[in-house]
Amino acid sequence: MAKIEIPAAQKSFECPEDDTILRAALRQGLGLAYECNVGSCGNCQFELLEGQVESLYPEAPGLNERMRQRNRHLGCQSRPLTDCKIKAPMRDDYKSKILPVRTHGELTAMRDITHDIREFRFRLDAANPFLPGQYGLIGVEGVNGARAYSYANVTAKGDEWHFQIKRVPNGSCSNALFDRVKTGERVSLDGPYGMAYLREDSPRDVLCIAGGSGLSPMISISRAFSASEKLAGRTLHFVYGGRAMRDLAGEDMLKELPGFGTRIFYHAALSMAEPEWKGRTGFVHEAAKDVVGGKLSDYEIYYAGPPPMTEAITKMAVENRVPVAQLHFDRFY
């Protein structure tokens, strides 16, 4: 068990030899900065002042060669080999409201949502709840490293985690889940993580924007919104974008919710629409702005999807002077 010290913050914590510095800190209630948890975003980088660490993902895109030469490492991919002292950004808003735990789960059910998105339902060995909009890590035997996927369900007990996952070309984990993992088999699970969870205390209406497997967290948020007494007087617009009609998803799940058609509304947009399509065309961020009449700053905005989509939404929000505190998304891909 290595001891990790953060002298500038006068904080220290213990990190088991089979855990990462970031996740060990979050499990102990410390607010180390992070976002994706899988080496892509670089938000969890720290400077190693003393000690030795091993990188679990040496070629991680979240850290460039210049940063490596400055003795910087990714917290989500660093395992301590000795006691360490580090310099790392910390904020209270990164503290986990529900401490993440490591456990295993059994795949109990699957169902296809589109031609390339499938829902996977796991029953956990050790239950742990999560906030709608958060994500967990799935580890599959034979796949190097865990992958981050957003929850689709809502749960008070946390005994089941449901994920709506898109098959990614050459994606080792998604392809393993689609092709190898069968009902009754087990995977490793870790979570919850993420800051893009539903803010029930917000006085604003809600705008959810999704593309691809960004469907999953937006469905979780919509389900929680529908059941929330605090948000009973609010409206939710759900805007989903795809290329073609076969990509569309989500409307059937929203139709099951109390309030659909009166305060919960579904909108679809296609960027490469077939001639028979009669709905909105164009990019999903443009459709979302149109849905709310351009009044983006009046909304609490949640979004998830491929990087070009999330970047376009962020740019649009900034240009329309939406306060950063009203934007909620986690970068992991």
Return the CATH class of the largest domain.
Answer: Alpha Beta
Side-by-side strand order of the widest sheet: 11-10-13-8-9-12
DSSP summary, beta strand count? 19
CATH superfamily of the largest domain: Nucleotide-binding domain of ferredoxin-NADP reductase (FNR) module
Distance between the termini: 31 Å
Determine the fraction of residues in helical runs and give it as a percent range: 10-25%
Low-pLDDT parts are none
Q: Provide the CATH architecture of the largest domain.
A: 3-Layer(aba) Sandwich
Q: What is the H/E order?
A: EEHEEHEEEEEEEEHEEHEHEEHEHE
The gyration radius over C-alpha positions equals 20 Å
Biggest sheet architecture: 6 strands, antiparallel
Q: How many domains make up the coordinates?
A: 3
The secondary-structure class comes to: alpha/beta
Give the percentage of residues in beta strands. Answer: 25-35%
Shape assignment: globular
What's the tally of helices?
A: 7
State mean pLDDT (0 to 100 scale): 96
**CATH domain topology of the largest domain:** Rossmann fold
Structure commentary:
Helices cover 18% and strands 31% of the residues. It folds into 3 domains: 2-94, Roll (Ubiquitin-like (UB roll)); 101-193, Translation factors (Elongation Factor Tu (Ef-tu), domain 3); 205-328, Nucleotide-binding domain of ferredoxin-NADP reductase (FNR) module (Rossmann fold, 3-Layer(aba) Sandwich), CATH 3.40.50.80. It has 7 helices and 19 strands. It has 333 residues and is of the alpha/beta class. The mean pLDDT is 96.
Brief characterization of the structure:
Helix content is 18%, strand content 31%.
